[in-house]
Amino acid sequence: MDHLIESKVKQASELAPCDVKIILLGDSAVGKSKLVERFLINDYEERQLSTYALTMFRHTTNFEGQELKIDIWDTAGQECFNNLHPSFYFGAHACILVFDVTRKLTYANLKNWYKEMRAYCPDIPCVLIANKIDVNMDVTKKSFKFGEQYGLDFHFVSAADGTNVVKIFRETLGKALEFKRNPPRSFERDVMELLDDDSWLNS
Known about the structure:
203 residues; alpha/beta; Rossmann fold; seven-stranded mixed sheet; 8 helices; 36% helix; globular; Small_GTPase; GTP binding; Small_GTP-bd
């Protein structure tokens, strides 16, 4: 399976570099691809090797007066814990974590997806999405503790009728840009900046 993912990464590299990369995580059939398609409508370029590889959606949009190339990566059939290639996470600026309100197991599995994502992307912003509220709007009255536990922004959405879909993608894009512009400090970054600045040698 890794060779398929590596091929997907190679395909992505053949496009002009993106400005922002957003990844989607969650169990199979929670509606990740439908959310992306609902957001983008027909304005995107899709790259996919097979139903078992990754799908990358390339989208150009205007955000805050700036034209941006956005890459949205979907697992597309690879939904298995500890089975995603590190390249899926590499260079990500934000994550959308999705569960299906009609299937409790997809909610229970969030902790596994979140743990794996944080192993590769410890600092990127993450937005939690409860999809398929159109099936039963009463779920919007329930309290879901996972988001509170990890300090995640939480939204109810419906890929079927479009409820909140554009809102959550635009919000996530904003968070991704903020992360890119102001990445958290790290020991490695501090060392590299120190090596680039030789003024301290003369102090």
